[in-house]
Amino acid sequence: MTRRVVVVNGPNLNLLGKREPEIYGTRTLDDLYQVVRARAAKLGLEVSLFQSNDEGAIIDYLHQHGPGSAGIVINPAALTHYSVALYDCLQALALPVVEVHISNIHAREEFRAKSVTARAARGVITGLGFVGYELALEYLAAQE
Ligand code: DQA
User: Fold this and answer.
1) Which pLDDT tens digit goes with each residue over 46-70?
2) For residue 78, which atom of ligand 1 is closest to its CA?
3) Active site residue 24
4) For ligand 1, which residues put their CB under 6 angstroms from it?
5) Rounded to whole angstroms, how far apart are CA atoms 103 and 119?
6) How far is the CA of 76 from the centre of ligand 1 (A)?
7) Is 81 marked active-site?
8) What is the pTM of this model?
């Protein structure tokens, strides 16, 4: 059976390509999905892709699509810095989670250096652009 990984992007990441390109680059969310799909295919993984600007919608999606998956790659975007609800959700699912950020959250405003969701993650990849998602998939593919 093919192993499936859930890849979730949080608020404002639908604006990739247009949003602060000096920080997030000029490639779009669709470009990211292409990179993710190609890497997943090479690793023999299926992917469930989701983006929302709504915290509740992200939590509902994870409740629905997390169980039975091999793990979660999540860029919680701004939710990273304050969403205890998302942290609780990731903890409750008890799956391997990799948190990814396109920019280096430690090299920006001070409030970005704090992640409340990272405690629920096996690891955090921050500042490596789209490659971070590929590395997260590599990690999940290597798990039992
Ligand atoms: C981000 C970093 C967050 O601080 C920010 O709120 C985002 C994107 C990143 O991918 O670099 O929306 O998660």
Assistant:
1) 999 999 999 999 999 999 999 999 9
2) 6
3) yes
4) 12, 75, 77-78, 80, 101-103, 105, 112
5) 19
6) 7
7) no
8) 0.97
At 8-18, the pLDDT tens digits run: 999 999 999 99
Please report, as a single letter, which amino acid is at residue 110: E
Per CATH, domain 3-142 is 3.40.1010.10: no
Q: How many CA atoms lie within 13 A of 24 on its CB side?
A: 18
Residue entry with tokens 């950020």:
101
Main-chain dihedrals φ then ψ at residue 120, nearest 5 degrees: -90, 0
C-alpha to C-alpha distance for 60 and 57, rounded to whole angstroms? 5
Q: What is the rounded radius of gyration, in angstroms, for the C-alpha atoms of the chain?
A: 14
Domain ranges of the chain: 3-142
* Residues pairing with 89 in the sheet: none
Distance in angstroms (rounded) separating the CA atoms of residues 66 and 27: 27
Nearest CA to ligand 1 atom 6: 78
